[in-house]
Structure formats: C-alpha cells, structure tokens
Amino acid sequence: METVVEEYVKYLSAVRGLSRNTVTSYRRDLLQYAGYIRREELDWKELSTTQVRGFLGDLSREGLSRASINRTISSIRGFYRYCIRFEHSQNDPFQLVHGSGASRSLPEVLSEREMERLLELPDDTYAGMRDRAILELLYSTGCRVDEVHSMDLQDVIRGKKAVRVRGKGGKERYVFLGAPAREALSLYIGQRKNHVRTDSPDAIRALFLNLKGTRLTQRGIALLIAKYLRQSGISKRVSPHTFRHSFATHLIDHGADIRMVQEMLGHSSVSTTQIYTHVGLERLKRVYREAHPHGKR
Q: Most exposed: 118, 253, 257, 267, by fewest CB within 10 Å?
C-alpha cells in the first residue's frame, strides 16, 4: 500500500497541483492508515466499512479532534477514488463512512489597535524594514505565510499597488496593498538589492530574503512574527494565521461584502469565509455583555 500512496502523492503534486503542505498532510494521513492496516494484518484492498471504523476509533482514542479525523477520512477517501480510477483496487471501504459534524471554534483576531501596536515595532535597520514590509503585507492582503514565502520580486505589480499570489492548488489571484504596506514594501525593496546573494537564482527571484541573502523560509517568517508578538505584550494566543483572520474580520466589520472577502482570501467556497461574520457577531455580544448595565444578567 505504501508504494501506491507514494504514487498517489506524486499525482497530487504533479497533476492536481496541490501545495507542498497539502500533499504532506495527505501523505501523513495515508501512511498512518497504512500503519494501522499493517499492524492489524488486514488487506487494504478488501476492507469492510466495519474494519475501517476500527481505525477511526483508534484515532479518537488517541485524542484527535473531530476536525482532524474528518480531514483524515477525506484524505483516505480521495486515495481510494484514485485507486479505483487507476485500477489499483475495486473496493472503497470509506464510501459509506461519514465524518462527524466538527464544532468549529472561532479564530482569534487582533483588534485594530493591537494590530497598529504590532506594526509599529520593527526598527529602521534593514532587517526591521524587511519585517515591517512582511507584517504590513500580511495584514494588508490576508495572504497565508506560505504565499508570502513563495512571492517573487516580479509578483509586485503596478507601482507596488498589487501583488500576484500563487495560492492553494496553483490558483493565482491578485491582492491589493494599502498605503502603509506600499510604503513599507518600497523602502524594503530599495535596500534589498544590497543584500541578495547574486550566485543564487532563487534568491535573485525571491521577494523576501533572510540575512544570508537567500529566500526567507516559512519558519523564518513565523519566528519573526513570534518575536514581535513577544515585544508587543499581547496576551492572546496568536499565530501567523491570525493576520489573515484579522484582515478578514476587520474588512467585514467595516462593511465589506462577504463575496469580495472570499475572493481576496482565495477561498473556493463562501462557506469557509462565513466564519468571519460569526467572529464579528461574537465580538458584538461580548461588548454588549461588558458595557450594558443589564448585559451581565
């Protein structure tokens, strides 16, 4: 089974054009499933629905959330569809297996004041100019960290007012830069040419560089965000993705149409974007409870 799994993940990358992170998640889920089949001495081509429910029971006992179990089911179901299509198997034991309704927690967001405090922290050194450009870009566009990591210098369009983004599944979209982001990006790009490693073609292409002059990694972006969060004193549980959540929530708070926010985020379905309307509603409820004389009753 492991051989077919490796063939499948190559197909996801080369033919379906899924991102590296998505393909890695699929591979991890499928190899976990293959490990269960090997331990239980089962034939993956002849499994029954009852037998695969044993695997899902194991995942539940390991403490996986309903969302993680549902994602695993989706990964394996896609694998069996591939196997049937390319005649590796004629049996899909997951055909009648349905995920449970996962309770979706609302994402943490920064207030507009907290965001402004965070964006003011980088200094005027080269590294500080780069960091401010990254933070402003994340907040101004709602891009994912992996999208920012993969940006090239040539993706900055028309006087730095827009940026071309390569999102999930190889989909391209354009995101727009507010004045603070344009200014920060312009200052950084003006200094970037003095720090790039000219013997590296990828570094020459890359928009954001580390201090060695090569492309800044996703982990590098996450670490610089963590540094400024520590400096800010913000006590919320914040991740790099919080910039994306805050971008979408602030847009909707100021009256943006949810379909437009969907386009800017690159969501394939508006149902994914709708969670941000709930975030705004929950914040209104919290303000009411804290501010109204009868709100605590």
A: 257
Catalytically annotated residue among 33, 139, 228, 276 = 276
Q: What's the pLDDT tens digit per position in 47-69?
A: 887 778 888 888 878 877 777 88
Question: Domains in the chain, please, with CATH?
Answer: 2-85 (1.10.150.130), 112-289 (1.10.443.10)
Contacts 24+ apart (CB under 8 A), 257-264: 263/173, 264/141, 264/142, 264/173, 264/175, 264/176
117 catalytic per annotation = no
What does the DSSP assignment read for 98-165? Answer: -------PPPP---HHHHHHHHT---SSHHHHHHHHHHHHHHHH---HHHHHT-BGGGEETTTTEEEE
Please indicate whether residue 149 is annotated as part of the active site.
no
- The total of other beta-carbon atoms located within 10 Å of residue 51's CB is 16
Please say whether the beta carbons of 252 and 271 come within 8 A. no
Residue 28 pLDDT class (50, 70, 90 cuts): very high
At 174, which helix (H) or strand (E)? Answer: strand 172-176
- The single residue of 77, 81, 267, 283 carrying the catalytic annotation is 267
What are residue 165's DSSP bridge partners?
173
**Residue 82 annotated as catalytic:** no
Q: What is the pLDDT at residue 272?
A: 61
Tell me, yes or no, if the pTM score tops 0.70.
no
Write down the catalytic residue from 130, 149, 192, 244: 244
Do residues 118 and 290 make contact, with C-beta atoms less than 8 angstroms apart? no
- Which tens digit of pLDDT belongs to each residue from 171-186? 788 888 999 999 999 9
Catalytic site residue from 27, 130, 132, 144: 144
Assess whether 144 carries a catalytic annotation. yes
Q: Is-catalytic flag, 168?
A: yes
